[in-house]
Specification:
By secondary structure, the protein is mainly α. The chain has two domains: about 10-195, Growth Hormone, Chain: A (Up-down Bundle), CATH 1.20.1250.20; about 210-423, Growth Hormone, Chain: A. Helices cover about 80% and strands about 0% of the residues. It is built from 17 helices and no strands. It has helices at about 15-40, 45-70, 75-100, 105-120, 120-130, 130-135, 140-170, 170-190, 215-225, 230-260, 265-285, 290-310, 315-345, 350-360, 365-380, 380-400, 410-420. The two termini are about 35 Å apart. The relative contact order is 0.15. The model has no long low-confidence stretch (mean pLDDT about 85).
Length: about 425
């Protein structure tokens, strides 16, 4: 029987500011990345520059998130988000100023982009952990779903608009739009007001280790390892990113070589994927889910099937159908993942746990992208994408059969949260 989400609306003052801040920040990130990408291309850096840009976009954030996580407390989350936005605004201001003055060597741009990526180590854990502070427990799933579905459409729109502006005024001037967006996003975050209430769990002896930096750092890893729901979730995230790496790295090559199609087909595939993600996010904002783990694993298996169908088939309508399924799976993966963390982990531990899980999973993405590049030269991009899908399907079946993740209900998540404070 389908149950719909009822109760209080999440559309209140604090969530409104968070919602619009996140969407503006997504636009800023899109403008910043694409502007710098084309700045490097126009400067003649070519494949080396773009490859380094992709690497420094993922790796610093993944490595630094667990290191910055212990500094985050419930009452400082919005300030970490503000700090991230202002730092990124400074980066996208410095690069064009130096470019206009004839100074834009690759090492300098990469150094600033490492700083740009590193600030995500603060923003992303804080933005996930702040939701339970401004939304009641019954509204957490809906809040995540609204943010996820809207983000997909905004990301697609920002990508398209940025491309048009780049064509007319060039990358350096386009970067100034990112500056404005970052400043607006940071300004909106400051309007979020909440009172961080200390929970009873803070009085427990097991929670005293949170008082030291190294205690909190170690605690994040220990919690993930001993948590009966988060540990298999983290393991499956690794396989998900390994499966996604071929598509992320080879999708444009696949469209050109396997489908013998034009860039417009690639753009349409991106649009269909975003449409699928938006519709699934909209559905999850309406329908109440009890078994978040089952939704997470099922969505992963469906994503794997979509990759497999895409890689083994060149019939264009079926490829578009797989792209839609892939987009829907992305929302059906992200929403339960965030909700599981926010529901099954004590509020003080959420930033660090999120950071640890994403460090573990995101490090597999660059490694997988490099490996699949060599494999594609030998076997073709389609086959490599299909192999990635097969890995995700098999890993999902294993997680489904041999762990408690898919069986866990909301009551189990709450029980795990209460047990985690004693770890």
């Amino acid at each position: 029987m389908v149950k719909f989400i009822d109760g209080e609306s999440v559309w209140k003052r604090n969530f409104n500011y968070l919602f619009y801040s996140r969407l503006v920040k997504i636009s800023a990130d899109s403008f910043a990345f694409n502007s710098i990408l084309w700045l490097l291309i126009y400067d003649g850096e070519g494949a080396i520059g773009t490859a380094l840009l992709i690497a420094v976009t993922f790796l610093p954030e993944a490595f630094l998130a667990p290191i910055t996580g212990p500094f985050m407390k419930k009452n400082t989350l919005k300030f970490w988000m503000y700090f991230s936005d202002i730092t990124r605004a400074a980066v996208v201001l410095i690069i064009p100023i130096c470019y206009f003055n004839g100074f834009s060597p690759l090492w300098f741009v990469m150094a600033l982009m490492i700083l740009h990526s590193a600030t995500g180590a603060a923003y992303n854990p804080a933005s996930v952990a702040i939701i339970p502070q401004i939304v009641n427990e019954q509204g957490i799933q809906k809040a995540n779903a609204l943010l996820q579905s809207s983000a997909q459409i905004v990301r697609l729109g920002a990508f398209t608009l940025c491309g048009a502006i780049l064509t007319f005024i060039g990358p350096a001037y386009t970067m100034l739009f990112a500056l404005i967006f970052y400043l607006i996003s940071g300004f909106l975050v400051l309007f979020i007001k909440y009172k961080a209430v200390q929970t009873k769990t803070m009085d427990l002896p097991a929670a005293t280790q949170r008082g030291t930096y190294f205690g909190r750092l170690k605690r994040g890893f220990v919690l993930v390892r001993k948590h009966q729901i988060l540990y298999p979730l983290a393991i499956y995230c690794i396989f998900m990113n390994l499966a996604a790496a071929p598509w992320e790295a080879l999708s444009a090559v696949y469209v050109a070589e396997e489908l013998n199609s034009l860039p417009i087909t690639f753009s349409l595939l991106k649009a269909v994927t975003s449409g699928g993600a938006f519709l699934m996010g909209f559905l999850l904002a309406k329908v109440k889910v009890n078994k978040y783990g089952l939704l997470f694993v099922t969505a992963g298996i469906i994503e794997g099937i979509a990759f497999f169908i895409t890689g083994m088939n060149t019939f264009l309508p079926l490829v578009f159908l797989a792209a839609f399924a892939f987009g829907a799976a992305v929302s059906a993966i992200n929403v339960p993942e965030y909700t599981i963390i926010q529901t099954s982990v004590d509020e003080e531990d959420q930033p660090q746990v999120y950071a640890v899980i994403h460090m573990i999973s995101n490090l597999s993405l660059p490694a997988g992208a490099i490996a699949c590049g060599y494999a594609a030269n030998a076997f073709g991009s389609g086959k490599v994408i299909a192999v990635g899908g097969a890995i995700e399907i098999l890993a999902g079946i294993g997680i489904l059969l041999f762990t408690k993740l898919a069986k866990a209900q909301r009551s189990d998540l709450i029980r795990e949260r209460e047990a985690s404070v004693h770890i």
